[in-house]
Amino acid sequence: GQVVYSIAEETERGVPVGNIAKDLQIEAAALSARNFRMITTSSKQYFNINASTGVLTVNEPIDREQLCELKSACLLNYELVLENPLELYRMKFKVLDINDNSPGFPLGEYHIKMPEFLSPGARFTLPSAQDLDEGTNSVQNYTLSTDEHFHLEMQTRGDGSTYPELVLKKALDREQQATHQLVLTAKDGGEPPKSGNVSVIVTVLDTNDNAPEFEHSVYRARILENSPSGILVAQVHATDLDEGRNGEITYSFSNTISADLQRMFLIHPRTGEVTVNGVLAVQRPFLEMLIEAKDNGAFGMSSTAKLLVEITDVNNHSPEITITSLSSPVPEDAIPGTVIALLSVLDKDPGENGKITCEIPDKLPFQLKPSLENYYTLVTSEFLDRELTSGYNITVTATDLGSPPMTTQKTLWVQISDVNDNSPVFSADTVDVFVEENNPLGAFLYQVSASDPDMGENGRISYKLRNSTVAGSALASFLSVSLANGSIYAKCAFDFEQLRSFYFQVEAKDNGSPALSAAITVNVYISDQNDNAPAILYPTSQNGSVAVEVVPRLADEDYLVTKVVADDEDNAENAWLSYHLAHASDSTLFRLSPHTGELRTTRSMRSTSFLKHKVVVVVQDHGDPPLSSTVTVGILLADTLPQVLPDFDDSGEPPPLLNATNIYLIVSLACVSFIFTMLLILLAILRL
């Protein structure tokens, strides 16, 4: 948007100009909230905006003549920048002229020498007054003090400008009056009008009655703004009808032109050639100079002509890129079309040389769009992804349309800020964990790990157990997980015989807002340890008594006495059982199957004279180390079940063969046999 204000120059500080909030139809409170800024190329800040009310007031009185010099229209350009969102408004202030300058003459007095023989009607150019005001406030008319010999007339040049001339209306008589004191007054059209005076002293001479005359009242020339020193601009020519020194002409710049122009140009006093002297340091397309031709008579006469010089622009200025506003970092979730920066691109050259094309490299997620005059906005053209690219160096290239074109580049660093757009990710959906039973409390089981490509708090992950139950109890009574690194620890000792496997979920959550999460399923398999000895189910004993099995006395070989039945709560090889005879009253009478636990006779029961036997059976698993249990079995030889079972608490073994009685009988038998043998030997000897 654009708004134009008019303000008179020299308006006092604090005077309101308008209400920018109302004029732009925005809330006054939004000015401060949206960080408003006023941007201008002027060296002074002439206006202020009240952030609360939006009232635009004068901050510095404006001197139109100092600011705009001789320009017909004096404009101050401002830009109002608002952020969040970024908006730009153009403000133009038209500075109105007031009659604050009086007409003035470059010199305090002017001297004119006139030969006395001049006839009435002779004309002499008078100095023109300068008034820095414009329009009706500038010089409007001239008046001359009353004198019987002179009157004032206004003349018009070819370009329409006017100048005063002193016209002789009565012949002069130097002997009667050698000098005439005149006062030239210039008045402007202001209200009230202002005026300026200058003394014009006319000296009456007796010579040189013809003034030089230019061929043209206005000369026109065109040069390049980078023309080197010494190049010819134009050549003026004047003639003088007088002879000798009175007809010799000297050319010079009028003392009414500025000192800057006199430094930039030289005029040859004899030839009238105007040449460039140094650098043409001007920004105006047209220059105006008055050239005076004066003869060399004793009382030199002069006339003036105007030289208009058109400065042709050459492409000698590179474009200027100014970053007016830059929003960095940019969130990666910014939608396409988000304004990133506001650029001002200017070229001091006029015309085609000052027209600019602006571009950025292809394959970037940004686009450069023209905004207001000489402004471009840098906007996003597609969605951003910080995880792919965290920042961009954007080179803005501005090229003018001159020949050859001139180029300027400026690089912007746009950083992409992170948003929480990525959930934590585990390397797998499930994981299997194996742990041995009887583990110590606090034992480390496993460490889950998730990754999050976001940065900062958005990528910082914490872990927790999702609520669930295991074997009817809360999961938290079995396990704990480290919040920081996902390490899982056991809070109790697992028992394979009670719980062989279970599963649970660990949740990984980032610290973004809103937080994102993911979960992994952990399957826990408990490994068996040999922590249970075999349990003998049959035969059983009560109160520590011996289990009794009755076997018929006439039982044959391979008779099944009993079968030892045992069980082990462990698993696999820890529950593989084998059976062994640890002790038997007669080891040759019984055998035990190591795999089935069957106790059988090895021969007929008729071969034994003992009625009771006792065996000890060991049941052993295959764990490491192995565990075992024993059972004692009493075997009673009987055809029927006795009413009272014998006591098997003794050894259950048959009495020893070499008791005292047996030894006595053996010794007696040996003695009798020896005596009988000796008697036989003796009888044999006697017989021989």
From TrEMBL:
<dbReference type="GO" id="GO:0007156">
    <property type="term" value="P:homophilic cell adhesion via plasma membrane adhesion molecules"/>
</dbReference>
<keyword id="KW-0677">Repeat</keyword>
<dbReference type="InterPro" id="IPR050174">
    <property type="entry name" value="Protocadherin/Cadherin-CA"/>
</dbReference>
<comment type="function">
    <text>Potential calcium-dependent cell-adhesion protein. May be involved in the establishment and maintenance of specific neuronal connections in the brain.</text>
</comment>
<dbReference type="GO" id="GO:0005886">
    <property type="term" value="C:plasma membrane"/>
</dbReference>
<keyword id="KW-0325">Glycoprotein</keyword>
<keyword id="KW-0472">Membrane</keyword>
<feature type="transmembrane region" description="Helical">
    <location>
        <begin position="663"/>
        <end position="686"/>
    </location>
</feature>
<feature type="domain" description="Cadherin">
    <location>
        <begin position="427"/>
        <end position="536"/>
    </location>
</feature>
<feature type="domain" description="Cadherin">
    <location>
        <begin position="215"/>
        <end position="321"/>
    </location>
</feature>
<keyword id="KW-1003">Cell membrane</keyword>
<dbReference type="InterPro" id="IPR020894">
    <property type="entry name" value="Cadherin_CS"/>
</dbReference>
<keyword id="KW-0106">Calcium</keyword>
<dbReference type="GO" id="GO:0005509">
    <property type="term" value="F:calcium ion binding"/>
</dbReference>
<keyword id="KW-0732">Signal</keyword>
<keyword id="KW-0812">Transmembrane</keyword>
<protein>
    <submittedName>
        <fullName>PCDC1 protein</fullName>
    </submittedName>
</protein>
<keyword id="KW-0130">Cell adhesion</keyword>
<feature type="domain" description="Cadherin">
    <location>
        <begin position="106"/>
        <end position="214"/>
    </location>
</feature>
<feature type="domain" description="Cadherin">
    <location>
        <begin position="322"/>
        <end position="426"/>
    </location>
</feature>
<feature type="domain" description="Cadherin">
    <location>
        <begin position="561"/>
        <end position="648"/>
    </location>
</feature>
<feature type="domain" description="Cadherin">
    <location>
        <begin position="6"/>
        <end position="105"/>
    </location>
</feature>
<dbReference type="InterPro" id="IPR015919">
    <property type="entry name" value="Cadherin-like_sf"/>
</dbReference>
<dbReference type="InterPro" id="IPR002126">
    <property type="entry name" value="Cadherin-like_dom"/>
</dbReference>
<dbReference type="Pfam" id="PF00028">
    <property type="entry name" value="Cadherin"/>
</dbReference>
<dbReference type="Pfam" id="PF08266">
    <property type="entry name" value="Cadherin_2"/>
</dbReference>
<dbReference type="InterPro" id="IPR013164">
    <property type="entry name" value="Cadherin_N"/>
</dbReference>
<keyword id="KW-1133">Transmembrane helix</keyword>
